[in-house]
Amino acid sequence: MDCVFCKIAAGEIPSTAVYQDELAYAFGDINPKAPVHILVIPREHIGSLDEAGVGHRTLLGHLMRAAAEIARKKGLAKGYRVVVNTGDEGGRTVDHLHLHLMGGRQMTWPPG
Length: 112
Ligand code: AMP
Ligand code: ZN
What we know:
By secondary structure, the chain is of the alpha+beta class.
């Protein structure tokens, strides 16, 4: 499969790893939109949140916990945002499920 994030998780495309375990991999976004902008992905290829099944519930929780752990290690005590863009109208550009962890500046609401 020709998936850029699968290749990143496998180490075939370079990335700045910030966290990894048997289920998840996290790395710096190449085009950061905040002082801290990290992508948390499952090692398993899941195309999007919409494609995640009941069998992925534990994995989805694992990714959320990993994001919170990274945020703490990055010193984001004042807060942060976790975003999952899904589908065309959701603004998704890469078809491998990923959580955006963003922090280090005041976020606004609603997002664009
Ligand atoms: P989304 O638009 O929600 O699908 O997010 C995809 C994100 O992946 C964007 O923020 C991109 O900047 C980021 N991205 C794409 N290719 C790479 C790469 N090779 N390394 C790191 N981040 C990437
Ligand atoms: Zn993939």
